[in-house]
Design goal:
Layout lengths: L15 E2 L9 H7 L9 H18 L5 E6 L2 H12 L5 E6 L2 H12 L3 E6 L8 H11 L4 E5 L1 E2 L4 E2 L5 H7 L3 E5 L18 E3 L12 E6 L1 H8 L12 H8 L12 H17 L1 H21 L3 E2 L10 E5 L6 H12 L1 E2 L1 E2 L8 E5 L7 H18 L7 H10 L11
Parallel strand pairs: 1-13, 3-4, 3-5, 5-8, 8-9
Antiparallel strand pairs: 2-10, 6-7, 9-10, 11-12, 12-15, 14-15
Length: 405
């Protein structure tokens, strides 16, 4: 068995990451990754863990004591929440309007639970009235599970009224905020969310590898009252809680030390920018991008009131060759955007403007590249029109949110 040559360093090319994740990373975060290692039980590292918990509470808008960064990607956060809160026989309502609602239903089944699906078309939301009706006729229900930002469709799920519905029926509210945290409001306490998880590689603009996670006292009590042990030792939150607890610090596993350095720095950048300024920046850049794409014949999939500003899902005219354009963007321009998943494969593009990727220069660069590619293929595109449409948004020629720099 032969091995490839090992006498050279791996030097990846620069990519402009405008797909559904990962996003661009600030130089300060990359610098934090390069700092010397200390032990995962070193007092200095334990102090850093405290810092991260405080920063995450501010980002999640919660006072939950159990607020941590789980060792693993956003999918680990998803599985940890389901594995710890759903026992065999538990019934859970799950909104299914894309890839990640479908995945949650599968995880519930694998834990021996009973997923009661509330289905909606891809690109649509799960209406609160549908949740109300299903809760009323399906009691008892252990949890309601919803995806706040469905990454496969660009749809933003309203949550403001769901927490009260859950409490009225004795159910927990579980929310997937993998793509939304740090890009749009996520109000864990105000919305009555009991378990909420995210990922570092989206709007937090940190490399993938950690899953921010927060659990309400109700959720932690449900874990303590389990009739069966959690099926996963590594993701057992009762054990992990002891490692993150400042009063006990019981060894559970070796934490990804460098990734936690990076997350602390990424969260510091989030807080320095300010919540409202950060949300306004994402809205503005999305508005400018969509204005430019409209001149090229691309239209958003979700309804206006339910569009995500950090994940712009646009439908393609039949004349556009999805794979050819994305391949040329990557190979000739060094720009990554995402294609569709499942039934949307070949029919949509998913363009991420998340965290550090959400910049005016990136929007204009992408639109300029698309104009050149469209012109090369003879598809309708007036030179400069897409870029000018975006510039009109930035310069205030169109009604818009005030620019955030």
């Amino acid at each position: 068995m032969s091995l490839p040559p090992q006498d050279h360093e791996f030097l990846p090319p620069y990519r402009l990451l405008l797909g559904p994740g990962p996003s661009m990373v600030h130089p300060r975060v990359l610098h934090a990754l390069s700092q010397p290692l200390v032990g995962h039980l070193d007092p200095l590292f334990l102090d850093l863990m405290n810092d991260i918990q405080a920063l995450l509470r501010a980002t999640f808008q919660t006072n939950n004591e159990f607020t941590i960064a789980l060792s693993g990607t956003g999918s680990a956060g998803m599985e940890a929440v389901i594995a710890n809160l759903i026992e065999p026989g538990d019934r859970a309502l799950v909104g299914v309007n894309g890839v990640f609602g479908t995945r949650l239903a599968t995880m519930i089944e694998r834990q021996g639970g009973v997923p009661l699906r509330i289905d909606a078309s891809w690109g649509d939301i799960i209406p609160a009235e549908a949740v109300r009706e299903q809760l009323a006729r399906s009691a008892p229900v252990k949890a309601v599970v919803l995806v706040h930002a469905e990454t496969s469709t660009g749809a933003r799920q309203p949550l403001e009224d769901v927490g009260a519905l859950c409490r009225a029926h004795g159910a927990l509210l579980i929310v997937d905020a993998v793509t939304s945290l740090g890009g749009i409001p996520v109000e864990v306490d105000a919305w009555g969310i009991d378990a909420c998880y995210s990922g570092t590689q989206k709007c937090l603009s940190c490399p993938p590898g950690l899953a921010p996670l927060t659990m309400s006292p109700r959720a932690m009590e449900a874990i303590r009252q389990r009739q069966t042990p959690c099926h996963s030792w590594y993701l057992d939150l009762a054990l992990i809680a002891d490692y993150w607890n400042d009063r006990s610090r019981a060894y559970h596993h070796t934490a990804p030390i460098s990734m936690l350095y990076a997350l602390r720095e990424a969260l510091r950048l989030v807080q320095a920018e300010g919540r409202e300024a950060r949300f306004a920046r994402h809205r503005l850049n999305s508005e400018a991008l969509l204005a430019g794409l409209e001149t090229l014949g691309l239209t958003p999939l979700p309804a206006t009131e339910h569009r995500l500003p950090m994940l712009n899902c646009v439908t393609l005219p039949d004349r556009i060759n999805d794979a050819a354009v994305r391949t040329r963007l990557l190979e000739d321009y060094g720009i990554e955007i995402g294609g569709g998943l499942g039934p949307l494969r070949g029919r949509v593009w998913r363009i991420g403007l998340m965290g550090e990727s959400s910049r005016e220069a990136h929007v204009l660069t992408l639109l300029g590249a698309l104009e050149e590619i469209f012109a090369h293929h003879g598809w309708p595109a007036q030179p400069g029109r897409a870029v000018h449409a975006a510039v009109d948004i930035y310069t205030g020629s169109q009604p818009t949110t005030r620019r955030s720099t």
